[in-house]
Amino acid sequence: MPEFAVPMENIKDYTLAALTEWMTGHGEKPFRARQVFGWLYPRGITGFQEMTNVSKALQAELAAHFHLGGLATASRRQSSDGSVKFAFRLADARQIETVLMPNNTHYTLCVSTQVGCAMGCDFCATARMGLERNLGTGEIVQQAVEAGRALEPGKRIRNIVFMGMGEPLHNYDNLVRALEILQEDNGFGLSARRLTVSTCGLAPAIRRFARDGIRANLAVSLNAVTDAVRTRLMPVNKRWNIAALLDACREVPAGNRYRITFEYVLMEGVTDGLADARQLVRLLHGLKCKVNLIPFNAYPGSPYRAPPPAHVRAFQQILLDRGVLATLRISKGQDIQAACGQLIRGQQAPPPEPMARTG
Ligand code: SAH
After folding, report:
1. Would you call 340 a catalytic residue per the annotation?
2. What CATH number did the domain enclosing 60 receive?
3. Which of 97, 132, 139, 167 is catalytic?
4. Fewer Cβ in 10 A, N or C end of the chain?
5. What pLDDT sits at residue 173?
């Protein structure tokens, strides 16, 4: 087949093992793969000729087979709290969103795993897009490369949470490869405890994740304590109800410091009853876990609202008093629609408030 007919591949779809195999298949020494990885991550070269310790011949060969999987930044908005929401344009012109959040000393990046989402949670803005497609491995890791470039020198991304658009476990293979790449010493070198995968509760995929020994934290969006409420909020509950979900969670091996995180979105009058808090304690009995409470983030047209802060604290206190570790997620980037459940294609800034008239 003539060479121009060979479709170019995204080199960032390749794990280190796969790239090593490619190298040996092309008559190169295996260690070249590791060398190339060092240029791809986290440095994020934009041309193969930048790899100064790689021969010109190999540079040319790589350039003939691969592209670097760069993403165009369609927009970039900065929140008053310092977080930044990127909209990235993919090669097929679809868009995804990625959120960079500063903490005191480091950054956490929230990445997308799908364009849209198939899960249909009724409180989540992304669900309204439906599922357009899965992201490739390279498209997932490139979000970290692009966001990393935007940081001041000396700063780096320390945590990556798979909590952007999409259901990560619905794109299992690409997710797992992305996790592997992000952990590679010669790449980002992030340790497993710095990576968190959040799922709406696909029980068989949770079991598979555990069985495969995937090295990452697991967060599970529980969001309700009765099947009636959870089914109304999260259609996935019809397939795997709370009992089935928690059974799968009990099979995740609990290491020394390892705990599953249960995310619980507080929606006033729907999930925030103090009796719900007590029921949550009962449900989680015996599970090595912690609870992350997320007051609902509103978006244009959203049907729910967050309870008042005092009520949120009361809910949290019930968990704490009964020995359940419970943290409160202070949502970042709400003013730029970058918080949990606010990511959606083409989300425009709400129009500015009309100026109040005096007199
Ligand atoms: N699909 C995965 C990854 C998305 S993570 C999952 O469901 O876990 C997004 C988190 O934000 C989930 O815990 C979800 O329950 C929560 N969420 C969705 N919409 C929200 C909203 N409007 N306000 C607050 N949290 C929301």
Report:
1. yes
2. 1.10.150.530
3. 97
4. C
5. 98
Here the tokens at position 260 are: 């599953």
pLDDT of residue 256: 55
Residue identifier of the C-alpha nearest atom 5 of ligand 1: 163
341 CB near ligand 1 (under 6 Å): yes
| Token couple for 59 | 């540079």
How far CA 72 is from CA of 53, 65, 92, 246, 340, in Å, comes to 27, 21, 11, 40, 23
Separation of alpha carbons 69 and 54, rounded Å: 19
Distances (CA, A) of 4 to 7, 19, 309: 8, 21, 61
CB of 294 closer than 6 angstroms to any ligand 1 atom: yes
Separation of alpha carbons 8 and 18, rounded Å: 16
- The answer to whether residues 123 and 36 belong to one domain is no
The reported pLDDT for the residue numbered 2 is 52
Q: Whose alpha carbon is nearest atom 19 of ligand 1?
A: 341
Question: For residue 99, what are the domain limits?
Answer: 72-336
Helix (H, G, I), strand (E, B) or coil at 198: strand
pLDDT of 143-181, one tens digit each?
A: 999 999 989 888 899 999 999 999 999 999 999 999 999
First to last CA, the chain: 78
pLDDT digits (tens, 9 = 90+) for 308-341: 999 999 999 999 999 999 999 888 888 888 888 8
Looking at the domain assignment, is residue 345 inside a domain? no
93-105 mean pLDDT: 93
| Interior/surface letters 192-209, b for 16+ CB within 10 angstroms, e for the rest | eebbbbbbbbbbebbeeb
